[in-house]
């Protein structure tokens, strides 16, 4: 099981030094990867619990973001080249880049450059987005009804630009004649991770068609993840592909507590990796059995200082993971 750190760049208050300290520790502890979060805006309506949709369009979450509209969070994308310069071993990525907020050709060319800046350590995470208010603030409201098609076109454009000396595309969201876009990525292929599709059949078709490297969920319990993996696996098998070739990850809140916590099933709100050392050890064993290849450890949005998270990450690597791997 690989370990990944989800940097808390989306918080009411966080400093660059805190993000730097967390990244340095992940590198020191030989984590597989460090990821940032893509959040363009927090509408004032969120502060009142009046977003048009619940968080991530998931019924278990409220119509409210966990950060206020007046919070001082950092944008995830500018942190990526900074992370490339700050690290030497750990892989880097943003979970998840919402493609409708970016021009596909520009995004593809910039990602290729970042792959060089990181010496071939970039993961590309992509999704469709879910918040109409954010689409409006990004001048992309017209894309919202067709956001999944935008993702598909973006993947085709990225892979075309990355693998051809010149490339042309004639679609709904991009229409250009043959052009060169500069340096190709070091990695061939540059790994693309996806998120947001709830239909196993659609997910499998996208994995098979585009050769996607991994799937990223959020707060998935071991049972839910095992079921989801099995469902996609059956669809992939019918297409002549194997789920074993797909990395399975999930963004999971992580805190080691002094006492046992209530971890009773509560959907996405379950304290899956918030608990005592013994509880977290047992949950990670269950995840391993369920097929989770990489937990994206997510420091909570509030009430847990970065200093505490730094200590928890050390305990996880040094005390918990040896027991998990030995199981």
Descriptive report:
This protein is an alpha/beta fold and 327 residues long. It has one domain: TIM Barrel (Alpha-Beta Barrel), CATH 3.20.20. The protein is 39% helix and 16% strand. It has helices at residues 16-28, 44-47, 76-86, 104-117, 132-137, 147-163, 200-210, 222-238, 277-290, 306-326, and strands at 4-6, 33-36, 91-94, 97-98, 124-127, 167-170, 175-179, 192-194, 214-218, 247-256, 273-275, 294-298. Helix 4 packs across helix 6 (147-163) and helix 7 crosses helix 8. The radius of gyration is 19 Å and the shape is globular. The N and C termini lie close together (12 Å). The mean pLDDT is 96.
Which key terms come to mind for this protein?
ten-stranded parallel sheet; globular; 327 residues; 10 helices; two-stranded antiparallel ribbon; single chain; alpha/beta; TIM Barrel
Mean model confidence by pLDDT = 96
Shape: globular
CATH architecture: Alpha-Beta Barrel
- The total tally of domains equals 1
The N- and C-terminal alpha carbons lie at a distance of 12 Å
Task: Profile the largest sheet.
Answer: 10 strands, parallel
CATH homologous superfamily classification? Luciferase-like domain
N-to-C order of helices and strands: EHEHHEEHEHHEEEHEHEEHEH
pLDDT < 50 runs, ≥5 residues: none
Count of DSSP-assigned helices: 10
CATH topology: TIM Barrel
Number of strands: 12
CATH class membership = Alpha Beta
Strand content: 15-25%
| Radius of gyration over C-alpha positions, nearest whole angstrom | 19 Å
Helix content: 25-40%
Structural class estimated from helices and strands: alpha/beta
